[in-house]
Each structure stands twice: as C-alpha cells, then as structure tokens.
Amino acid sequence: MTHKQEPIKGTAGDVASHDQTKSWFYTDVVKDHFFNPRNFMHQDADEREYNAIGKVGSPACGDELRVWMKVDPTTERITDFRWKTFGCGSAIASTSMASVMVMENGGMTLEEARKLKPQDIMERLGGLPQRKFHCSVLCDKALRDAINDFYRRTDQFDKMIVEASRIIDPISKVTDHDIEEAVLEGAHTLELVQQKTKVGIGNPGCLPAVEELIRFYKEKYFG
Ligand code: FES
Fold it and tell me: What is the reported pLDDT for 221?
C-alpha cells in the first residue's frame, strides 16, 4: 500500500486551490476520524486522573498536540489514551487513529507503543497527502513524550529515551532535526534539503553527513 495521496493536477480534490490546478485527496478513513475523532480529551476531564502526559509542537507548522494516558503500573499497558490538538485535520485523524491503535486488544504495553511508527498510523488511515506526513509524526512524538513522562514519574529513568538535536553544520547552525523536518516536508534530495535549510552552503565538508541523514529519515518515514 502506498502512503502517498498525490494531488492530481486539474482535478477537484477534497481540498483544491481556487484555480483547481492543485488538489489534495483524503481517504474515507481519514475523513471519518476527522469528522468523528475518537478518544478526544473531555472538556471537563481531570488531568490528575492520568499518570502520563505528553506534549509536542511542530516546527513545520507551529501546531501543538497534547496527550494524556492512563498506564497500568503493574502491566505497563495503556488503558486510556486521550488527546487534544491545535493541529490540522490530518493531525486530528492521525492522533485519533493512534489512540485507537494503542488501546485495541487490551492496550499496548509502553514498549510496544514506543515501536509504533508514523507509517503504521498512515497505513491504517490509507495514506495522507505527502505534505501532511509531518502531522502524523506529531502524534508519534507526543506519544513518546508521554511514555518518557510515565518512566520519569515512576523513577525508571534508564527507560527514558530523549531525542536531542545535534548540529550538523556549524556554519548554518542546521541540526539533524531541521533535516528531519525538511524530509518530512517532501525534500528528499540533497538539493531540495539545501534549498530549504541552506545546510552545507559554505561548509561542503558536512554534506556526506547530510546525505546520510536524508537516507535515514527517508527510510524511517517513507520506507
Ligand atoms: S499539524 Fe500542523 S499542518 Fe498538520
């Protein structure tokens, strides 16, 4: 199954530019989760009932997502997963689907949930438009943040995995995280990543590391 829902020039999609030259399509599953989001955090819920909270902001679009989890302290299975977002329809559909996935069949353990990838969520959604891939990464990252929060609260610091960014080009101050965002935004060649980030312009010595990262993130998110 492809993850890409490519725009078709000259055809009307679910979202189309005013001159109809560009359009995006969403699958029925995406539309269902957007219009009927599952496990949305209740307005009057008491967040003290949850023992793990995650939060992430997207540098790509400025949107934000929060998740709340109830984790059984004995089995470390997720028994409840709620969320709220200021993100777009794709973020809503992705997080709604992720909430279903982590709770089905008795709930994933935290280690199983940590292995959940954005591709798994997109697969269940039947794909997302390429420019929306970063929205599905948002819920994946918020989930990881909540998993770390549970381990922090239970003093299991050795199980926490913190993804810090690392400077790849000291001249342009571009980090591996910037390159990850560029790849998620559709820049899949060195030339396109350079157009977006300016990495390596004035410091060509870092380009092999940049190419390596582009390969890594393409494999990670696009298979
Ligand atoms: S979450 Fe910001 S554009 Fe989708």
Answer: 83
Distance CA 73, CA 177 (A): 33
Indicate the residue type of 91.
Answer: A
Query: What is d(CA 29, CA 175) in angstroms, rounded to the nearest whole number?
Result: 35
CA of 120 to the centre of ligand 1 (A): 18
pTM score, whole prediction:
0.79
- Catalytic residue list: 61, 135
CA distance 43 to 136: 23
pLDDT in tens, 162-181: 877 889 999 888 999 889 98
Domains of the chain with bracketed CATH: 28-159 (3.90.1010.10), 167-222 (1.10.10)
Instruction: Indicate the helix (H) or strand (E) that contains 52.
Output: strand 52-57
